[in-house]
Amino acid sequence: MTRILFASVGRHWRLLGIGLVAILLANGLELLSPFYLGQAVDAITRGQEGRIPLLALAVVVFATAAALGQLVRRLCFSGLGYRVETELRTRLFAHLLKLDQGFFQQIRTGDIMARATNDMSAVQALIAIGISNLGNALVIFLAVVTLMLLIDWQLTVLSVCLFVIPHGVLFVIGPHTRRRFRLIQEQFAAVTAKAQENLSGIRVVKAYVQEESEKRAFRALNQDYMDKSLAFARIYNALWPVFAITDGAASVVLLYLGGIHVVQGRITLGQFVQFMTYLVIMSGPVLGIGWVVTYLYQGAASLRRIEEILDRRPAIVSPTAPRQPDQVRGEIRFEDVSFSYDGSPVLERFSLLIPAGSTVGIVGSVGSGKTTLVKLLLRLHDPKGGRILFDGVDVRDLPLEWLRSQIRCVLQEPFLFSDTLARNINLGAENPDPLQMEWAAELSQLSADLDQFPDGLETVIGERGITLSGGQKQRTTIARAVLSRPAVLVLDDAFSSVDTSTEEAILTGLKAAKGIQTRLVIAHRVSTIKDAGLIVVLEAGRAVEQGTHGQLLARRGVYARMYGHQQLEEDLLRWRNRDGGSQ
User: Fold this and answer.
1) Helix, coil or strand: residue 353
2) CATH number at residue 182
3) Are 522 and 370 contacting, i.e. CB atoms less than 8 angstroms apart?
4) Is residue 525 domain-resident?
């Protein structure tokens, strides 16, 4: 925790230095005012009227200068806090982009959002309020105690005992405070996650009439968050009346004993006024130390939560001594590849050669391991056994960014950003040519729908492309994938929302597309891959059949049965549509 904090603050050492100097100067000037105030009181008692105006002016000047110094302190530490918060949030975001898929399967998005927002604000308060005021309190305390000792050491010792020691209880309960605040932050993460989940799935919530159910679940989480927060607040709020009583009693005792010392001639009235003014100056920071400690422990708990992510090392990284093939051809070879999720086997000794320039189709039932092949090829995961070669080089030996730049994948669930169609298509392309964009839109058959959009490719499509149909979303992601003409194009069930004629037009265009050397088409519909040069049938993580469409039908095996079932389903659907139309 301290490592991250010191490193973040240390990058702004100039601003920190100015803030520390401001603390010293502001408090030094503030402590001069009581001295001149005491001199003024003694001048009054001695009848030295001529000195009073000058001493009064000195009090005003030093008090004003001290106030300006405190302003500089607050500005410096506030600026430091916001800078550290901004840089730490940027660092967290950059680190999240490097982490592997396994991390995001273990933690909810809402929890990450809570750490990037609420916890970051607590870190900002730790610096701007906690460290700033703690430093200010320490300087004032040490300086005031020193000056008070010069006036009356007996009253000083009594003051420290009566004012400071009772507040030490705050440091005793500090660890308990940190644990409680961590529970609060974790509950806030649960609330955030629930809200994010419902907003992302709002269509499902409404379609299944779950508004009331989800509202009750959210209310319960929110109530738990409030209960934890109130329990935390009650601990500290219960201490303030106690401190107010002890501090008030201490003031009465010091006023009485100090008065006796004045009467006995040990100190002058002016010195007593000076002493009590120092005490007032010290009591403010001492009383506020509980407030400061709260921010310190809250910030410490939040820093720890942020550190948990920053300390997480990605399981998938680029090799220290990377290699690249002499020539990019697009050949892919799976050699005895095995993989499992949480101990459940998904692929078992899977082997397949995808020649450069070929079109290979992979078909299989749900859970057969089709999508896992794509994740392994892109190195979103690494195989538990065997290896995957890209143009003769193990993908684990290739630079990670280079590997992924050579492969473009259209996933089952298209993801679009809240931006224009053009920028969604341009994703991953450097300096895209408008003509190339038009070509990509035509190949994906998206150009046929551009007349429906008020601003064509410059139309903003909303969050996750909410204004587009399912087919338009898939065609947009296909245009995105082909724009850069990758060496390998992977279509992972990319036509589930596209009609058959559009699918055929896209596949025909892909065959003729220059620059795209190898095509890997994954589908559950046999019609999507029947024209592929090689078809692989996956079942329970194994390649059970390979061949062309005709060869596999002739074998009358798994593929033939799958094809027959799908043909029967399509015939029944056509019959129902025809029968419904005749009525």
Assistant:
1) strand
2) 1.20.1560.10
3) yes
4) yes
Amino acid letter, residue 471:
G
Sheet of 332-341: strand order equals: 344-354, 332-341, 385-390, 393-394
Q: Give a three-class secondary structure readout of 101-147.
A: HHHHHHCCHHHHHHHHCHHHHHHHHHHHHHHHHHHHHHHHHHHHHHH
End-to-end CA distance of the chain: 73
Same domain flag for 427 and 388: yes
Domain identity same for 349 and 492: yes
Which DSSP letter does residue 460 get?
B
For residues 322 and 16, the answer to whether their CB atoms sit within 8 Å is: no
What pLDDT is attached to residue 582?
45
Contact 496, 469 (CB under 8 A): no
pTM for the model: 0.76
How crowded is residue 12: how many other Cβ atoms within 10 Å of its Cβ? 18
pLDDT digits (tens, 9 = 90+) for 249-270: 777 888 888 888 888 888 888 8
- Range of 18's domain? 12-310
CA distance 522 to 13: 55
Cβ burial 24-56 (10 Å sphere, 16+ → b, else e): ebbbebbbbbbbbbbbbbbbeeeeeeeeeeebe
- Rounded to an integer, what distance in angstroms lies between the CA atom of residue 426 and that of residue 414? 15
Dist CA 479 CA 408 (whole Å): 11
**Residue 76 counted as domain residue:** yes
Question: Where do we find the tokens 């100097």?
Answer: 21
Q: Give the distance from CA 385 to its chain's centroid.
A: 33
How many angstroms separate the CA atoms of 580 and 303, rounded? 64
Indicate the DSSP class of residue 425: H
**Cβ-contact 290, 174 below 8 angstroms:** no
Which CATH number covers residue 514? 3.40.50.300
Gap between the Cα atoms of 113 and 88, Å rounded: 14
Inside any domain, residue 321: no
pLDDT in tens, 237-249: 776 677 777 777 7
Tell me the two tokens of residue 410: 């259209």
Provide the 10 A C-beta neighbour count for residue 233: 11
Residues 525 and 547: their CA atoms lie apart, in Å, by 16
Sign of CA dihedral 39, 43, 44, 46: positive
Lowest mean pLDDT among 42-56, 84-98, 149-163, 384-398: 42-56
Tell whether 359 and 291 lie within a shared domain: no
What type of residue is 408? R
pLDDT exceeds 50 at position 583:
no
The number of domains in the chain is 2
Write the CB contacts of 571 (distance below 8 Å, at least 6 apart in sequence): none
Centre a 10 Å sphere on the Cβ of residue 176 and count the other Cβ atoms it contains: 12
Contact assessment for residue 381 and residue 346, using Cβ atoms and an 8 Å cutoff:
no
Same-domain pairing of 298 and 365: no
Q: Give dist(CA 534, CA 557) in Å, integer.
A: 16
Q: In what order do the strands lie in the sheet with 542-547?
A: 407-410, 488-492, 518-523, 359-364, 534-539, 542-547
Angstrom CA distances, 125 to 2, 21, 184, 296, 578, stand at 16, 20, 16, 8, 69
Assigned token pair, 43: 């001048």
